């Protein structure tokens, strides 16, 4: 996303004034390092591969499950969801992708895509032929390292998502999701204290293994605990007035009077 997608306007809710703890300084430095890594990766891909670039809009599909695999895709801006279809016809959100993420790795083994990749908003997608990528990697070891690292990060993200679904209660799953989304925005230089969720409540529940009603109840509890706030006009627009407090809750260190 070198051309960053603009965030919808949300009502201003001032974050609580507080001195930044030393531990937070490390977090901000880590985000800056990760943002620079993404920028460097995109710069290398653009220089070595000259990918085909195109703009897509919300709802457009890059590839569908079952299509023959020949290309990989890298996000330069925007957000994507990955949808898999179960044998009984149910849709399952199996992944979210942000700037610097790759689309299509899982298709390499079987030669066909295993899910649908659908844009959640206007995005710029870079497309490269897989065979051209492999040839370029042979000539540019730094590019091979980038591809291996991207694959590793995807596996780690899938592991963390599975751990959250299998081990965390509903409130912690939703809080972790919000924290993950906000942190992903912050790493990419986008505003993280006020943002619009690109998924519906039902899609969030589908992704987290929860019902729509459970997601709605948890969001209301988080709002009552002042860990988040809603836009009066759209409940998809979320404010996080105190990011460290949300992070502490995710880590089980919330010192407030619990969510009831």
Q: What would you note in describing this structure?
A:
This protein is of the alpha+beta class. The chain folds into two domains: 22-140, Jelly Rolls (Sandwich), CATH 2.60.120.10; 168-260, Arc Repressor Mutant, subunit A (Orthogonal Bundle). It contains seven helices and eleven strands. The strands form three sheets. Strands 1-8-3-6 form a four-stranded antiparallel sheet. The chain has a four-stranded antiparallel sheet with strand order 2-7-4-5.
What's the SSE blueprint?
Elements: H1 22-49, E1 52-56, E2 61-63, E3 71-77, E4 80-85, E5 91-97, E6 102-103, E7 116-119, E8 123-129, H2 130-139, H3 141-167, H4 170-187, E9 194-196, H5 201-208, H6 212-224, E10 229-230, E11 237-239, H7 243-250
Helix pairs in contact: 2-3, 4-6, 4-7, 5-6
Pick out its properties.
disordered N terminus; Arc Repressor Mutant, subunit A; Jelly Rolls; 260 residues; 43% helix; globular; four-stranded antiparallel beta sheet; alpha+beta
Give me a quick take on this structure.
This protein has about 260 residues and is α+β, with helices and mostly antiparallel strands. It has helices at about 20-50, 130-140, 140-165, 170-185, 200-210, 210-225, 245-250; strands spanning about 50-55, 60-65, 70-75, 80-85, 90-95, 100-105, 115-120, 125-130, 195, 230, 235-240.
By CATH, the architecture of the largest domain is named Sandwich
Overall mean pLDDT score? 87
β-strand percent reads 15-25%
User: Can you identify the CATH class of the largest domain?
Assistant: Mainly Beta
Radius of gyration, taken over Cα atoms and rounded to an integer in Å: 19 Å
Number of extended strands:
11
Number of domain units: 2
Shape: globular
Question: Can you give the helix content as a percent range?
Answer: 40-55%
* Span between termini: 39 Å
Given as residue ranges, the uncertain stretches (5+ residues, pLDDT < 50) are 1-19
Number of helices: 7
Sheet with the most strands: spatial strand order: 1-8-3-6
| CATH topology-level name of the largest domain | Jelly Rolls
The CATH H-level superfamily of the largest domain is: Jelly Rolls
Output the structural class.
alpha+beta
Largest sheet at a glance?
4 strands, antiparallel
Secondary-structure element sequence?
A: HEEEEEEEEHHHEHHEEH
